[in-house]
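Today's session is about reading a structure prediction critically. Students often jump straight to the picture, but the first step is always the sequence itself: look for stretches that repeat, for charged clusters, for runs of hydrophobic residues. Only then move on to the predicted structure, which in these notes is written as discrete structure tokens rather than atom positions. Here is the chain we will use throughout the hour.
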Amino acid sequence: MEIWKDIDWEKFHFLRAEYLWYGLPVAIIILLCIFLYGESNAWKKHIAKHLQPYVIQKGTTWKSRLVYLFILLLFAIGFIGFLGPTWSEKKAPAKKVASKLVIALDLSQSMLTTDVSPNRLERAKFKINDFLDANPRAETALIVFAASTHTVIPFTTDYKIISDNLDGLQPHMMPQRGTGFRMLLQKLDTLFVNNKAPGKILLFTDDLDGIDPPALSALVQEHNVALNIYPMATPTGGHVPSFYNHKVALKDNGKVVNSALQADKVNALRGIEGITVVDMTLDKSDVTLLAEDISDHLIFEEKPKNEDEDWEDKGYLLVIPLMVLFLFCFRKGWSLLGVVLLVSLSSCTSDNPESKDKDNTEAFQYKDLWYTKAYQAQQEYDTKDYLAAAEGFKDPMRKGVSYYKGGNYVKAKQAFQQDSTASGQYNLGLTYVKLGDLEQAHAVFESVVKNNPEMAQAQQNLTSLEEAMAKQSGMSVDESEVEEDKPNAKNKKNDSMEDLSGGGQKATKKDMEKERAEEEAATGKRKGKELDELPDDFKSGKGAIPKNILMRKVDDDPALFLTRKFKYQVKKQQVDVEKTQTSW
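Below is the predicted structure for this chain, in token form.
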């Protein structure tokens, strides 16, 4: 067999070698049994030699010796199989884990220094937004720090939430002033506890003087993270603005406070493994390259805890010779042996790729004797090898689901198109959504809902899909329906090339109010944010809102909420405050 030629004798070992000594007493017992069995036949010596040919059957001696040999051989083969011979590592799919990313932003007073235009803090925000726009794909958390460290956004892949909260961050939001790196390192330590994949940290700060390099090195090595530091200061530096008037320089003991980049600290940090001090560029190329690198190295395979799990136990291969030898224990063993050998030889296939037809995907294999193709495909599906399972499934539903989970949405679509059941068409709609073909998905879900009204989930997906398509067109579903039924507002057309007012003449306040009312009448809606007083048809006390009012979400600055949150956390001692040497 070809498998014996593939044995790597350099890697050959036993998985259960500690049981090797157990075979010695068993072998001694077998030998004693054979010896005692030979002693039981000593009566043959007492028969006269001229009578022995007529009393003792010829050939019994070599047969008995052959039986002894078979017994020893069976024991040896079975015991070797029990010890677990192996020479190749397992190819089972390893558990995949995703890398996580933490963005730490310095909110100390010195970040408002204007040596970096427009100031250090705003430039850091620009860099973070450019980084998120490049889509690193990793789960990202945003934290801010001064004398205390606080979480703004926990781990998420919704970068828009991070950007919305990032814009309003200012130093005055922090409960205590200063730059506390010790509290920052404690927070990072908790965020990367039990970290299974290499993590990433982006640190935006202008104060490298307070960083403890040994503590940073310990964090990087202990949690297997890569730290990228963006120094937001220049070597020449600038005056730190006052806390209450940013146009006036901050003074400490009568001296103007100046903040600059320390070159010796930069060189010291660059010498630590796992820490990179990034040279900031004027464009977004630096953060774009970093985002692409994180995206390309996002998924990692988790190593198994037990090293023996990496090796494949080949002891099962010795079952075949054991079966062959057991056949001799039965009458007419040679006939049975011939049948088994004939079946075994007919099921053997060559492993030479040149002898295989590339288009022959149904090649017979040894495991086909015991498992059906569907069962083999289900085993691959259970091990999350979805693409391999899809090749084995014949049922369009199972094949489509496997392709869908494996990420091959094109083949999943082809499989679901062959399934005319309601579930198959429902999955086809989901596949069209993954492919970005919302119109086809809408048509499929609409057909499913029409033919199967009891499928509530299909109706929900159809509604969500209509809302998504309406957002792409710039209006809500209700607004689009109203505009189909009512005429548009008759605004005046500007025919003059010189007058840009919109109506060829200056609009009066009365005209503006008239056209505004006309516009509201065309849509049949009055915006809740634009109402100066309650409408006449609003009934107090019933908790209902008139149907002709479309309430819009009122944009509120999250900075106020975060300011109160940070102060509350410090007040309740949920967050520790570090006593810093400086307050800026």
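Discussion point for the tutorial: Confidence is low (pLDDT under 50) at residues 345-362, 475-507, 512-555.
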